[in-house]
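User: Could you go from structure to sequence for me? I need the amino acid at each position, not a summary. C-alpha cells:
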C-alpha cells in the first residue's frame, strides 16, 4: 500500500528583518545608506508528515520550531521553498493568535471558525459545544480584551478542539486554564489526536509529552533539522546534548 503524506515541506527558508533600536532622526539621516539586516530562522529544511501521524518538534529557544509551525499554518510566508498540505484543512492552537479584542467571545468563535475554512452555518452548529467546553459563563458575550490570559486560552483551545480539522498544529498549549480545565483539555486533546485519520504536529519542550503522544520527533537546532526519527532515541540524544551545552 502506497504511503500517503499529509504534509510535505521542501527546502523551506524563512527569515526576519532585524529592527535595531534607533531614534527617528538618526533613522532619517542614515536612511539611504542603511542596510537591511536579516535573521534566517529556518535554513532550507525538508521533511514530510504521514497521514494520521503525530510529529513532535523539539529544540531550544530560537531553534526555529514555532516559526516552522506558523509557516505550516500560513501565518508566515517562506522566503523560498514549498509547503504542500495536500488540500487538507488545518488549524493552529497557539495562545495569542487570531482574536479581535473589541469583539465578544461569541463573535470571535464565528470569525475564527470561518478563518479555519468552515462556513458560518457549520460554525453555528458547533457554537454551543464550544461555549460549553470553554466554561466562560457570561464572559462569552463580553469583549475578548476584558479576558484574563486563562480565559483567552480556554476559548482558543475550545475553538480548535471542537472545530476539528484534518491537520492540527499545537504550540506548547496542551493544557490551559485551572487544574480542572487542564485535565479536561488534556483528555480532549488525547482523544483528538488518537483519531488515526488526523495528522498532528506538536511543538513542545516537554520530553514526557512528546514521548507519550508522538510517533516521530524532529529535533531542530539553529534553524536546521539535527535529527528526525523515533521519539525515544531522538529525545535521549537531545537531552544529552542539552546537558552538555
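Assistant: Here is the amino acid at each position, in order:
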Amino acid at each position: 500500500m502506497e504511503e500517503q503524506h499529509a504534509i510535505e515541506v521542501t527546502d523551506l527558508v524563512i527569515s526576519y528583518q532585524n529592527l535595531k533600536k534607533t531614534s527617528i532622526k538618526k533613522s532619517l539621516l542614515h536612511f539611504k545608506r542603511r542596510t537591511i539586516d536579516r535573521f534566517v530562522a529556518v535554513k532550507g529544511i525538508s521533511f514530510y508528515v504521514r497521514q494520521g501521524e503525530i510529529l513532535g518538534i523539539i529544540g531550544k529557544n530560537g531553534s526555529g520550531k514555532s516559526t516552522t509551525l506558523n509557516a505550516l499554518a500560513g501565518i508566515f510566508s517562506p522566503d523560498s521553498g514549498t509547503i504542500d498540505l495536500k488540500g487538507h484543512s488545518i488549524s493552529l492552537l497557539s495562545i495569542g493568535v487570531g482574536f479581535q479584542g473589541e469583539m465578544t467571545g461569541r463573535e470571535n468563535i464565528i470569525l475564527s471558525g470561518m478563518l479555519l475554512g468552515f462556513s458560518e452555518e457549520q460554525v453555528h452548529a458547533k457554537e454551543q459545544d464550544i461555549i460549553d467546553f470553554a466554561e466562560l459563563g457570561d464572559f462569552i458575550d463580553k469583549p475578548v480584551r476584558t479576558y484574563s490570559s486563562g480565559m483567552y486560552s480556554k476559548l482558543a483551545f475550545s475553538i480548535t478542539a471542537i472545530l476539528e480539522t484534518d491537520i492540527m498544529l499545537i504550540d506548547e498549549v496542551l493544557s490551559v486554564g485551572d487544574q480542572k480545565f487542564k485535565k479536561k483539555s488534556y483528555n480532549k486533546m488525547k482523544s483528538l489526536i488518537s483519531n488515526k485519520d488526523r495528522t498532528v504536529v506538536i511543538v513542545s519542550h516537554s520530553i514526557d509529552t512528546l514521548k507519550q503522544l508522538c510517533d516521530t520527533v524532529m529535533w531542530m537546532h539553529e534553524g536546521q533539522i539535527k535529527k528526525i526519527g523515533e521519539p525515544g532515541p531522538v529525545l535521549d540524544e537531545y537531552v544529552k546534548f542539552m546537558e552538555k551545552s
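One structural detail worth keeping in mind: The mean pLDDT is 87.
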